[in-house]
DNA sequence: GACCACCCTGCATACGCATGCAGGCATGCG
DNA sequence: CGCATGCCTGCATGCGTATGCAGGGTGGTC
């Protein structure tokens, strides 16, 4: 930078200003500096800038599993939004262990301006602890101590149940896991809606995660449940259920209707395309970034929670109940 | 750090050494410093460290599309490997535009110790340019100017063809796109193997990318081709082909056999599970990181190319050819 | 008992940029 | 024409660590 200054016949501080506060430098001076910089192939050193400013221009994103399309789509949106706002993204895959996630979060938080936690497997206490030591925003989860954006499930789930009820389904299996406990409860709304529309609910909950294999396992129990429709809490399980049913020789939506939640690309890479409760992942990601940047600007502002509306997208996996034998 | 030094009764430089070169400090001194650091909740400032060392402890990873499971799996492995080696991962999603990717690469390269390019859509010249301005390693691609790790396709593709030929298929459709041109050519080996085993080859190549939708489109052309088996160059297209065929009322592997390449989790989240040419993505990712770290250590070392063996994994999507009408 | 070698620690400075402050200049107003 | 008001720019210093160098101390050796 000193070299550029010399080449342009100005001081180092002017060069610095050209790059960080262009408006404070007269146009012709600026051009002269930029020209010199171009000639010398100079680019500001981010590390030095970070040290001097106390800001890295970097955001951290923690996800439990990069490969899960739900998180993959969030990563994609977050990355683009962050970059659009002039920030770089540091990514970390935490796995399912709360302790690991917490430790990683501390480490990543240290070298970024703020932390985005997508579907964290942590306790409220851990999240609070992190939020106290730096800007934090939650995506697809909620906790008292930090900003958050997540899907508001009640209305959407009611739509799902109504859709199924209208098709003539009177008994439904609902597959959910407990590892998503931080996600605002979907279950109560499901209960309520079932009561409202006179639908019997069979819950298939477990301490399991919402994986493909658990979906296959769940599918094995469906035929004996007497239900004619299945709601899976994300596309991984939904695919598992679909494969499980196919393997049994059952057809969707002929024998069973299937509804998923999230609406990642996987909802359409299967035949029949899945009817889903669409969750606006793009908005969630973008909103998460905005919340975090806002918190970075104003560390002491009031905490904001941002529930986003979901919507029912009817595709091919739901239809009128067929003649299910309900084999023992 | 100065505070910690005072609290521990040592100098700032000793504290620095405790964190960066622990072995050069006597054990009891070290303990005293660590204790003081713990008490004051001190953690070294990465930005300052980066400035002083000229190293950020950060690697950049560029992928064309985060959501594609192929890249998602690479991201996951790379992230873990990098972290295991004491580095943090900066992620960037480039999209398909070479220019964008190049610009992003320059930007990310500036703030990291090295760059990992997974399936880059850039020209050799661009890659060379990047490699000249900093450590670079390619994953799943090859270019003269940079270290690289990629799948060696010839042997594997031959196995695939042999497998299909052995099942009795004598005419095969091969779906590939040109956007993966940087991937070491698979086509010649396919041609050769087909010749070797007396199989007719119908190529369905295009300037298109290997997306789900293009797979569906390809499926429409399959029945009229007279072929009884399809090879799709990745799981996205394979899913598209599978869905397209299902939509036509054709069954896999009853009417058509289907083989995919890569073996991401998607190969098994479909029924029937896909027979695939397995590409060791985990090894590729880890190797990529190792190559890059090596290059960072030794910027002038000889360039290394690392082809990895692939292997045929037979699942459910291939079988003996059925009675295909070949409807006009 | 003297000397040498080595280990550990402190001192001083560099890393590259940002920014508060003050001074120089031009413009506008009275 | 003199002075006030801004606009630009340069000066000096700070950001938090790392590290070459030198000095003090220790143990070992002859």
From TrEMBL, chains A, B:
The keyword Repressor applies. Keywords: DNA-binding, Repressor, Transcription, Transcription regulation. Gene3D superfamilies: 3.40.50.2300, lambda repressor-like DNA-binding domains. PROSITE patterns: HTH_LACI_2. Residues 1-53 form the HTH lacI-type domain. Pfam families: LacI, Peripla_BP_3. It comes from the Bacteria. GO terms for molecular function: DNA binding. InterPro entries: HTH_LacI, LacI/GalR-like_sensor, Lambda_DNA-bd_dom_sf, Peripla_BP_I. This is LacI family DNA-binding transcriptional regulator.
């Amino acid at each position: 930078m000193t070299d550029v200054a010399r080449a342009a016949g100005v001081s180092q501080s002017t060069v610095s200003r050209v790059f960080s506060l262009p408006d404070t430098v007269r146009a012709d001076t600026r051009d002269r500096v930029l020209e010199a910089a171009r000639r010398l192939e100079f680019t500001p050193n981010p590390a030095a800038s970070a040290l001097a400013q106390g800001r890295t221009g970097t955001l951290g994103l923690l996800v439990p599993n990069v490969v899960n399309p739900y998180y993959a789509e969030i990563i994609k949106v977050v990355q683009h939004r962050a970059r659009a706002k002039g920030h770089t993204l540091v990514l970390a895959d935490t796995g399912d262990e709360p302790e690991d996630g917490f430790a990683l979060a501390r480490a990543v938080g240290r070298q970024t301006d703020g932390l985005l936690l997508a579907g964290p497997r942590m306790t409220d206490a851990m999240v609070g602890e992190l939020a106290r030591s730096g800007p934090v925003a939650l995506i697809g989860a909620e906790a008292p101590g930090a900003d958050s954006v997540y899907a508001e499930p009640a209305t959407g789930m009611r739509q799902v149940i109504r859709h199924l009820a209208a098709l003539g389904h009177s008994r439904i299996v609902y597959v959910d896991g407990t590892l998503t406990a931080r996600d605002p409860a979907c279950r109560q709304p499901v209960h309520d809606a079932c009561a409202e529309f006179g639908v019997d609910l069979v819950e298939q909950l477990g301490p399991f995660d919402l994986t493909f294999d658990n979906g296959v396992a769940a599918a094995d129990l469906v035929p004996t449940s007497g239900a004619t429709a299945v709601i899976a809490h994300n596309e991984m399980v939904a695919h598992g259920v679909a494969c499980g049913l196919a393997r049994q020789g059952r057809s969707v939506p002929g024998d069973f209707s299937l509804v998923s939640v999230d609406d990642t690309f996987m909802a359409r890479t299967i035949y029949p395309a899945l009817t889903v409760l669409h969750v606006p992942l793009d908005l969630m990601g973008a909103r998460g970034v905005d919340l975090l940047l806002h918190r970075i600007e104003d560390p002491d502002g009031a905490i904001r929670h941002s529930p986003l509306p979901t919507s029912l997208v009817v595709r091919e996996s739901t239809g009128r109940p067929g003649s299910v034998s309900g084999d023992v």
